[in-house]
Amino acid sequence: MKTIKTILVLAVVLLSINSASAQYGNNGYGGGNNGYGGGRMSQMSQMNQAPSDNKPKEIPVEVTVGKIMERITPALSLDALQEIAIANVITESIRSQAILMKDKSGQEQKIEEIKALSETTDRKINEFLNADQKVKYKALNEESKNPKKSRRNR
């Protein structure tokens, strides 16, 4: 019993030392010149970092379109020609949406323009679908708009 307590105390001490050293970097308090943070030069280099480092990376349009097509191709039983045509429509729509989002117009105007873009995209996609696929596409759109309701019904 005494050995278990000793091992437990030793483990706690080792873990606390490890976490304390991890907080201060590899070679002291922040790895600086004086051991406590690097002084002016290190602070200036941190301030001069590009602001783009803080922005999340944009996902390429092709990746987004690929994920959408992976989901709708089997659900709609698309043939190769339909797949290419719909992928082109979606790519164009996503690029237009990105341009709208960067526009400096008001939030309400952006929402209206995106709704109009969405309707246009749906209309263009429906042009490439047969009657059965149109029904399935409409159901997919409803499911994506109300994901919680559709999952409860299953």
UniProtKB/TrEMBL annotation:
Taxonomic superkingdom: Bacteria
Keywords for the protein's UniProt record, in alphabetical order: Signal
Instruction: Work out whether the entry's keyword set contains Signal.
Output: yes
Which residues does the annotated region (Disordered) include?
36-57
Biased composition, Polar residues: where in the chain? 42-52
Q: Which residues form the signal peptide?
A: 1-22
The name of this protein is Uncharacterized protein
* Species assigned in the record: Flavobacterium muglaense
